[in-house]
Amino acid sequence: MKIFKIIAALWIIILSSEIFSQAPNISSIPDSINVMAVYGTAVSDSFYIANTGDADLHYNLFDYNSLAIGLEMLHENDFSIFPGTDYTNSNWTSLSGGAQVTGNNLTGVLISPQFSTLDCEGFYLAFDQNFFYQPGSYSKVEYNNGSGWSEVYFQNADSSTAHQKIELPSGPTGQLRFTGYTTKVTGNTAFWFIDNIEVVGSWHFYYDCSWLTINSPIEGIVTHSDSTLIRFTCDASGLQTGRHWVNIVIESDDPDEPEKKITVHFDIILGTPLNVNTYIENDLLFVTWDEVAGADSYDIYWADDPYGPFAYFWSTQLTSCAISTYWAKKFFYVVAKSDE
Ligand SMILES: [Ca+2]
Ligand SMILES: [Ca+2]
């Protein structure tokens, strides 16, 4: 009988502690949030911190552990400023948003500033070009990895519009020198046009949460049976296309869930080519479209009917293509693509 009394007393103590202690209860926290933005743009999203307990919930939140996979831009010049920030130039001129050297027995030399390539392996130089060859002319690219100049590209026999992607030797620093020598032969003057110089690092993992900004207060109180909206922005500026992610951690005084984690997946996609147009010139049908930021190439699809079915037709790094006027009754659409 005595034992029963003790058990009964314990039971009452346990029961009363269940009844009278009050606790917050964090809820409505998603495991992950998927956010998508077009290359170079920012997008906002939000989530709720709800409290279904019967006491105030005190929380604070922070972002951490953002593990991204991407291609690192080590150096770039799209000639939006001519000849480019800290470039030295002789005889190259600004043309159509790029740089061109042309003339009779003229040498143009364009030298980039030094840029850091420390801890980078397997990176490459990419650029667009249009080299109109005449006998004696040449186009040449040299690279200085910190221990002297070496030639990485040379063309002295043919015209070329081929987009270049050239692996560069590693070293502590990088510097580029573009030399064009142009001649005039039987009335034709050679030229070399270049644009979109990029030195891009190889695929790698890196930690960076700078693209995520939490716009709401990062600490606060949610009263019982209430909720608080947390807004955040993901900014794709300076990020490559592909998936990036970050964890938002919410610490609170919820007794059994003191730490909750939301993984934000941030997908950066390319925009849609706008203003797809056609015109006929010199017995050729030209299809043109606006450049898409971040695009490395474009796939062109065509069909006999405006509603399709569309079939793959051609791929190009330019923003136009020329086709026989025999195909003038075709319908076209264009998809932007990136190398990643
Ligand atoms: Ca809880
Ligand atoms: Ca340009």
Question: What does this protein look like?
Answer:
It is a single chain. The strands form seven sheets. Strands 5, 7, 8, 11, 14 and 18 form a six-stranded antiparallel beta sheet that branches. Strands 6, 9, 10, 12, 13 and 15 form a six-stranded antiparallel beta sheet that branches. Helices cover 6% and strands 56% of the residues. The mean pLDDT is 87. It is built from one helix and 29 strands. The longest helix is centred in the first third of the chain and has 19 residues, at 2-20. The chain is mainly β and 340 residues long. The chain has three domains: 22-66 and 208-269, Immunoglobulin-like; 72-205, Jelly Rolls; 277-337. One calcium ion is lined by residues 78-79, 97-98, 195-196.
